[in-house]
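Structure first, sequence second, as always.
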């Protein structure tokens, strides 16, 4: 979902990050407010005042999204769900849960608290706006407060649309989950509605573009694409968790993987291993025992002229919880580590012995086969 993100700060123990793509949203919001909305409603202000109001509106949106996602995170923590943090990106923000809620009540409470928080922010902004009107605050301040009141109410209403993965879609999933006692079925229905809503937004975007509103149409088109792909991906992730929850790492790992001796040079390592096998990371062994890991990034940090004299053992780093997993762990744990770290391969380690390697590619292939078999079974039944 995300590209390059930057850590901003921590709040209540949650890491708040901003994806580089969010800067595009911030620039668009600032520009549209400064050149369109505020000049339309507040005439004859200095040109600079509109831009200050636009920047303040973008900051207000930033804080509103953080509060919205923070409430999701706090409730999720209350229900014992591990959170990766909060990331703001071009389509808003997301509280990144490492697992699905364990029961429909948790799902409902985690989902509904976001729109409720947006409503409260909108109501509080409206109260401040009325107060400012009565005591004579500058029109620039009151204009921004009025915008934030309207914005948060719109965010709350939009998020309550029962289309997964919007909050309303998660509320719908919780209700369907209670009804059928089947999270997979509930997710499938909510995701199909979400996918359909995404298609509707795509069509609406095309209509706007054809009618001449290119920027607005492009925006709705992209949001529709995002919602549709996220809805489909969410269902696939649930299938993956269900599949891998019943599997141990040692059932999916590759035994006797490619290993690298400590003594060879980086030049030989690149020539005989990287160019041959194309992996990003390799286990390093000495006398049959695991001594560390070496990755392409580590090699790239060494000047090219030193590759012939530098050994793998001198560059390799100790393996840690981000690069290893135990053979008896659930495969879902391996998937969570990969998701958190971005590593596509993990070393399966017991003590100082390398048992094998588990790769994301192999896990996805298994998931693809499982989904294909499910589709064939459904067709056979029908």
């Amino acid at each position: 979902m995300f590209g390059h993100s930057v850590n901003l700060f921590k709040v209540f123990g949650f890491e708040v990050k901003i994806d580089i793509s969010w800067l595009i949203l911030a620039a668009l919001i600032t520009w549209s407010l400064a050149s369109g909305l505020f000049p339309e409603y507040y005439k004859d202000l200095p040109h600079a005042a509109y831009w200050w109001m636009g920047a303040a509106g973008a900051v207000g949106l930033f804080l509103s999204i953080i509060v919205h996602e923070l409430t999701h995170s706090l409730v999720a923590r209350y229900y014992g769900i591990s959170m990766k943090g909060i990331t703001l990106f071009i389509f808003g923000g997301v509280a990144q849960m490492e697992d699905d809620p364990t029961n429909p009540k948790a799902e409902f409470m985690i989902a509904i608290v976001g729109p409720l928080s947006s409503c409260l922010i909108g109501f509080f902004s409206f109260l401040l706006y009325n107060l400012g009107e009565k005591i004579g605050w500058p029109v620039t301040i009151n204009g921004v407060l009025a915008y934030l009141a309207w914005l948060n109410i719109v965010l709350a209403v939009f998020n309550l649309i029962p289309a997964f993965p919007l909050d309303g879609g998660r509320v719908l999933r919780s209700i369907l989950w209670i009804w059928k006692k089947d999270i997979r079925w509930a997710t499938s229905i909510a995701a199909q509605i979400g996918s359909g809503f995404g298609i509707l937004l795509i069509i609406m975007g095309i209509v706007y573009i054809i009618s001449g509103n290119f920027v607005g149409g492009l925006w709705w088109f992209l949001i529709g694409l995002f919602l549709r792909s996220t809805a489909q991906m969410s269902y696939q992730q649930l299938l993956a968790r269900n599949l891998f929850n019943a599997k141990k790492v040692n059932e999916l790992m590759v035994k006797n993987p490619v290993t690298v001796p400590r003594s060879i040079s980086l030049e030989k390592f690149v020539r005989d291993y990287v160019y041959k096998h194309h992996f990003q990371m390799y286990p390093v062994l000495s006398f049959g025992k695991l001594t560390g890991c070496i990755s392409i990034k580590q090699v790239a940090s060494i000047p090219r002229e030193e590759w012939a004299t530098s050994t793998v053992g001198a560059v390799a780093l100790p393996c840690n919880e981000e690069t290893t997993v135990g053979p008896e762990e659930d495969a879902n744990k391996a998937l969570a580590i990969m998701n958190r770290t971005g590593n596509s391969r993990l070393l399966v380690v017991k003590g100082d012995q390398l048992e094998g390697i588990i790769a994301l590619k192999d896990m996805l292939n298994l998931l693809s086969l499982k989904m294909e078999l499910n589709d064939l079974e459904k067709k056979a039944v029908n």
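Margin note: Strands lie at 5-11, 14-19, 83-89, 92-97, 260-261, 281-286, 289-295, 324-325, 345-350, 353-359.
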